[in-house]
Design goal:
Chain C: It is found in: Cell membrane. Chain C: The chain crosses the membrane at residues 15-35, 42-59, 101-122, 134-152, 189-215, 236-257, 269-297, 309-328. Chain C: One of its GO terms (cellular component) is plasma membrane. The complex is a heterotrimer of chains A (397), B (446) and C (342). Chain A is mostly helical and 397 residues long. Helices cover 66% and strands 5% of the residues of chain A. Chain A has 19 helices and six strands. In chain A, a hairpin with a 2-residue loop joins β4 (181-186) and β5. The longest helix of chain A has 25 residues, at 241-265. Chain B is of the alpha/beta class and 446 residues long. In chain B, α2 (59-76) runs parallel beside α11 (344-363). The radius of gyration of chain B is 22 Å and the shape is globular. Chain B starts with 7 loop residues before the first helix and ends in an 18-residue tail after the last helix. With 342 residues, chain C is mainly α. In chain C, 67% of the residues lie in helices and 7% in strands. Chain C has a two-stranded antiparallel sheet with strand order 1-2. Classes of the chains: A mainly alpha (397), B alpha/beta (446), C mainly alpha (342). Chains in contact: A-B, A-C, B-C.
Chain lengths: 397, 446, 342
């Protein structure tokens, strides 16, 4: 793998980095600039990036990746409990165990392809979930979820002489508390800069970079070849399984990291993180954003998390407020209609969004952006038709 | 079927100040630099966070909780008929808001999942500036959110959560529970079961295979065995099993003459319906009539079981047919607004809001440690459960427990349960050390 | 011995439901090549046909009685079902039989729903990747269940079986057991027989009619059939309708066993996929076989004797079997090569 990057990739990486670091400025106006949601954007962005390396490149559709996310979370919380409140060992072990689990499950599941592969991964994840919820309660604390305790041993912290007193400890990166937030007011808006978010953000950028390198490498090319025609590949005498397995393990490690980060920003690990609906969520994020594209999965993750957290919070009072400039009858009518889609109806909006996007934008949101851009450049009198990276992503569909 | 009428004008007034509008989000600074504690209200409103299940299996229960919260906010702000404020023994609240501030609220969806519930609560704390979080319809969620509120430094007033752990093993200083727990259910139910079925009984437990189910099974076993019952078997069933037939058929020839269903929600609806379908309610074993017991009854969920609940014993935190002044006032004000009676979930949520507001008023502050101190050891009456005390040692309310039975001839869809006995508080009290855990210090978040 | 017999019965009626859902799903897979994540929603819609029929038959005349008041001070409502008011005892009987009646309603309703779904949405996705099919049908499933929720709420709605079918049938006596040892609820036996009848009907239709022959040929090689000048598309529309009807019937008749709520489709979705894959993609007999097999094994895994040896085995048995079978038999029990492998 050569270390040279083409110009467009460098620009994309720089742009991505700027957006990620400036997230509190960008997302506060749309109500999503608070630490928890930004953390979720970054964490699920990592999760979806990793999933995309498997699904977007090789076409293997795993329905069990939430299991690795859950394993990562449990590992990280146990690392907090036993070793130290420092997130570094937590995410190290989370990635390690995510990788180990995915190596085992991937090795077995990759003996089949197509939907048989999907069902195998689903079955393993569901077994993990069901056992974590019930029989494995001593390890996972079942329904309640694994939480920190004042009386945890924390060997490394004790050895280093760190004492958290009677209060529950907070995960901290060499003294920086992961939940500390600096606030500032800009143009009447309160911006929150949260250390936990920036910890996740650095890792997100790193993961994005790695994912970009994989996409452009010979290994990535090989993975794409696995997708386009496996039979032809095997006729050439090439065994594709190791490549697919490597992709599976990498994506499992991404998931483990994401799970670990969930515990870093919020030290609790629950079994429902491993349920099939959670596995399905990352599939939806990836397809929604654009499978096989670099940026798509991150955007898909953001859109779904935004709906889940912001649309569900609109109640009738807020709607009345939003339509308050209208005459009263119209206001009430609009509130009645809108309230079907927000608050307790946010699922409906999400479902409808899935349908609309997949019907009209087969390549996900990324295809939408590309169409807009070609449209604009055509209007501008036909400049270059999009960046090279986009052409590459289109080819990967 | 009755329709829900939300008084939009009233609602508008109630939430106007929380104006996190679509067009202009975050229009106020929630945490000023000078704040002494997390989300100290600086304007003329105080924001509460109502975190209830709006999607998933408990969505209807969540909707009922939200109705109760809206009613409580109206009453606190001096709208409507005042509900239980007029019967509440503490007269600090005058319908002029709390500590001179109007009460506003934000809502969120827990999805009955710990992660989603914590995310939603975090939004309320970090973005909307909520100074108290309340709600929920299951113990897993309650414990997860309670832990979060402790970390963040706001008060958590638990909604419907019945597991011992909420105020036992996993109790936290910032968390308070009005609802009862499995320990109290066991203590209240066992004597009534003995009176009705005798002391020579063989019980068979079907238990939802998660923390709450085990807690419930343990309590019932403990108290019934003290009275001479024998436990034939206790079988764990997967959550959301749907069809329970494979667990019910072994009961038929097991020699047991009582079936205890430690299930809640849909599991309860399904296992009870199916147990009755298998003829267990009309069976005779050992010369005795077979009995089915559902330790935690919810009127709202019981509707889903239809006729199957007739004659089935269980316990409940509150029921709308109670005739004390507090319950009557609450049912009247809820029924007039929505057209049907409130559920026990609605009742406990309404009480929690009133109790929190009252404690803030008495403390003269919203600071969690001050509010907590005002709640600890607080004795009150007039909220529908008779004389009640918030015990300081574990932040658990102690009050009478209702033992109920499925009504044979219900007069309406809502009239499904009849109160068999009101077990006095003294009988269900237990030492705080029994359940373990430690509260730890209050966290004010600053 | 009676224990085991009872568990086999449990497995049969559970398996009946699994088989019916999986049958429809595998028809859609096999003929149209579409991964239908909305199939659970079709099962749910069928169940809500029963709810709607009961609600319709049970419509009540509401009169206000000013002499009595409710606990919140409004006049008491006196409710009387119209059917009872108009037809007396016969009316009551009709309401009592609402679940069997709903089957008659479910057939046309589900046929229309299925055809509308295929014409309006699914047909545009035949050539699209499976991932797109999953996303669009999953979105549709969410939309359908949210619509049902906004009409019927989130709580389960009880649908009692007709009184005549509420009793128990004691057939241990016929097998030489003591009376009362092997008894089983009548409705569950009816459900099992019903599922056999529907399965038989579908097989007969596909095996014995010309239409079925063309469809089977289409399943084997769609392009060739198209080249023969047969309008395969129109037939496939009907096939989708039939699959929807089968799922709907399974749902409507299941309501006395499982009080329906808007979310029940999702609970069956994963399970039905496992059943289909274990049976083998595109194999109808495989789907039926796997349905009953998984139903029975699930019942056995729930026995105390088994659980004592393997704690928690009943939680994972379905998935464990799926893994084992897929590793031993690459294409499930009766699957054909090349179907949905890429």
């Amino acid at each position: 793998m050569s270390l040279t990057m083409n110009r467009n990739d460098v620009l994309l990486l720089i742009g991505f980095t700027i957006v990620v670091f400036a997230a509190p400025f960008i997302f506060t106006p749309i109500g999503a600039g608070y630490p928890d949601l930004l953390q979720k954007f970054a964490i699920f962005g990592i999760f979806a990036l990793g999933f995309n390396i498997l699904f977007g490149l090789t076409g293997y559709l795993s329905f069990g990746h939430a299991a690795f996310l859950g394993v990562g979370s449990y590992t990280a919380v146990w690392s907090f409990k036993l070793l130290s409140m420092n997130p570094l060992p937590a995410i190290f072990f989370a990635i390690l165990l995510g990788g180990l689990f995915s190596a085992v499950i991937g090795y077995i599941s990759l003996r089949r392809s197509g939907i048989y592969f999907s069902i195998l991964t689903l079955a393993f994840a569901q077994m993990c979930y069901n056992l974590a919820y019930s029989v494995l309660t001593p390890i996972t604390n079942g329904e309640t979820g694994l939480q920190l305790d004042q009386s945890d041993p924390r060997i490394l912290d004790t050895a280093a002489g760190i004492d958290y007193g009677a209060a529950l400890p907070v995960s901290n990166f060499f003294g920086i508390d992961m939940n500390s937030t600096v606030e500032t007011t800009l143009f009447g808006q309160t911006l929150q800069f949260n250390s936990g978010y920036y910890f996740c953000a650095v890792l997100l950028i790193l993961c994005f970079f790695i994912s970009m390198r994989i996409f452009r490498s010979p290994f990535g090319l090989m993975l794409r070849a696995v997708k386009s025609n496996q039979n032809r590949m095997s006729y050439t005498g090439l065994n594709t399984k190791p490549y697919a397995l490597a992709a599976f393990i990498i994506s499992g490690m991404y998931a483990g990291l994401a799970g670990g980060l969930m515990a870093v920003t919020d030290p609790l690990a629950g079994a429902e993180r491993m349920q099939w609906t959670a596995s399905g969520e990352v599939v939806l994020m990836t397809i929604l954003g654009g499978a096989g594209t670099l940026l798509g999965p991150v955007i898909g993750a953001g859109v779904i998390k935004y709906f889940e957290n912001i649309f569900s919070s609109f109640n009738e009072g807020i709607l009345m407020q939003a339509y308050s400039f209208l005459p009263e009858t119209l206001q009430h009518a609009l509130v009645s209609i809108s309230s079907l889609f927000v608050g307790e109806g946010w699922h409906l909006t999400l479902g409808a969004l899935f349908m609309l996007i997949v019907i009209f934008l087969p390549g996900g949101l990324m295809e939408g952006f590309r169409r807009i851009r070609t449209g604009i450049s055509r209007l501008m009198g036909g400049g270059k038709s999009g960046k090279a990276s986009d052409r590459a992503s289109a080819a990967a569909e | 079927m009755s329709k829900l009428y939300v008084n939009r004008r009233g609602l508008l007034k109630g939430t106007a100040a929380a104006g996190v509008g679509l067009a202009a989000p975050t229009i106020f600074t929630s945490r000023a630099w000078s704040a002494e504690y997390m989300n100290e209200p600086t304007g003329d409103t105080v924001t509460l966070g109502f975190n209830v299940p709006q999607t998933g299996a408990y969505a209807d229960e969540g909707a009922d909780e939200l109705r109760a919260y809206q009613l409580a906010v109206e009453h606190l702000n001096g709208e409507g008929d005042g509900g239980m404020l007029s019967t509440f023994s503490s007269k600090e609240l005058k319908g002029e808001g709390v500590n001179g501030k109007k009460v506003a609220f934000v809502t969120g969806d827990t999805q009955t999942k710990s992660d989603a519930a914590r995310a939603s609560a975090k939004r309320m704390i970090e973005k909307d500036g909520a100074v108290m979080i309340t709600g929920g319809s299951s113990s897993g969620v309650a414990i997860a959110v309670q832990g979060l509120c402790q970390e963040a430094g706001v008060i958590f007033m638990a909604g419907l959560t019945h597991s011992n752990d909420t105020t036992g093993k996993d109790k936290r200083a910032n968390g308070f529970r009005h609802f009862f727990n499995t320990e109290m259910t066991g203590a209240a139910l066992a004597p009534v079961l003995k009176n009705n079925f005798g002391s020579d009984r063989k019980a068979y437990h079907l238990t939802a295979d998660y923390t709450w189910g085990w807690s419930q099974e343990g309590s019932i076993k403990k108290y019934t065995e003290e009275l001479g019952w024998e436990t034939v078997a206790a079988v764990r069933t997967p959550l959301g099993a749907g069809d329970f037939s494979q667990y019910i058929t072994p009961v038929l020839n097991s020699g047991a003459d009582v079936l205890v269903l430690n299930h809640y929600g849909r599991d309860m609806v399904n296992s009870l319906t199916q147990a009755v379908q298998f003829g267990l309610r009309d069976k005779e074993v050992n010369g005795k009539k077979f009995a089915i017991v559902v330790p935690l009854f919810s009127r709202l969920m019981a509707q889903g079981a239809g006729d199957a609940i007739k004659g089935i014993f269980g316990s409940t935190n509150w029921h709308w047919s109670l005739q004390d002044e507090g319950s009557k006032a609450f049912v009247k004000s809820f029924g007039q607004k929505y057209g049907f009676p409130p559920s026990q979930a609605a009742h406990t949520c309404y009480c929690q809001t009133i109790l929190y507001a009252d404690a803030c008023q008495r403390a003269g502050s919203f600071r969690p440690s001050a509010v907590g101190a005002a709640l600890e050891g607080f004795s009150f009456d007039g909220l529908g459960n008779g004389p009640t005390e918030y015990r300081a040692a574990d932040h658990q309310c102690f009050k009478d427990v209702l033992v109920v039975k499925g009504k044979e001839n219900p007069s309406s869809n809502y009239d499904l349960l009849e109160v068999v006995e009101i077990t006095p508080r003294a009988q269900v009290e237990y030492p705080a050390e029994l359940l373990g855990g430690e509260l730890g210090p209050y966290n004010d978040g600053a | 011995m009676d224990e085991i017999l009872l568990q086999i019965l449990n497995g049969l009626d559970k398996g009946g439901a699994y088989a019916l859902i999986a049958l429809g799903l595998t028809i859609i897979f096999g003929t149209l090549g579409v991964v239908n994540f909305a199939h659970g929603a079709l099962f749910m819609l069928g169940a809500f046909c029963a709810v709607a029929v009961k609600a319709f038959l049970g419509m009540e005349k509401v009169t206000l009685d000013p002499t009595q008041t409710t606990a919140w001070g409004t006049p008491m409502e006196i409710r009387q079902p119209y059917m009872e008011a108009w037809f007396g005892e016969f009316g009551r009987l009709v309401v009592d039989f609402s679940v069997p009646f709903s089957v008659l309603v479910a057939v046309p309703v589900m046929l229309i729903v299925g055809i509308a779904m295929e014409r309006g949405l699914i047909r545009f996705f035949y050539k699209r990747p499976h991932a797109d099919q999953i996303l669009v049908t999953f979105g549709l499933a969410i939309v359908l269940q949210e619509i049902i929720k906004s009409f019927f709420g989130a709580n389960p709605i009880p649908q009692p079986a007709p009184e005549a079918a509420q009793g128990m049938i004691d057939f241990g006596i016929a097998l030489g057991f003591d009376a009362g040892n092997v008894v089983y609820p009548a409705w569950r036996l009816i459900y099992f027989l019903f599922s056999l009848a529907v399965i038989g009907g579908v097989f007969a239709f596909l095996q014995l009619t010309t239409f079925g022959m063309v469809v089977r040929a289409g399943m084997a090689d769609r392009e060739t059939v198209g080249l023969l000048g047969i309008d395969i598309d129109r037939r496939f529309t009907v096939v989708f309708g039939i699959a929807a009807v089968v799922a709907g019937l399974a749902g409507a008749m299941y309501t006395p066993i499982l009080s329906p709520d808007y979310h029940m489709g999702m609970d069956f979705l994963v399970l039905s996929f496992v059943v289909v894959v274990v049976g083998g993609m595109g194999s109808l007999p495989g789907a039926v076989l796997a349905g009953f097999l998984l139903g029975i094994l699930q019942s056995f895994a729930s026995m105390n004797e088994v659980k004592d040896i393997f704690p928690g085995i009943d939680q994972i048995i379905i998935y464990l079997i799926a893994v084992v079978i897929l590793l031993v038999r690459p294409r499930g029990l009766l699957g054909r090569k090349g179907v949905m492998e890429h």
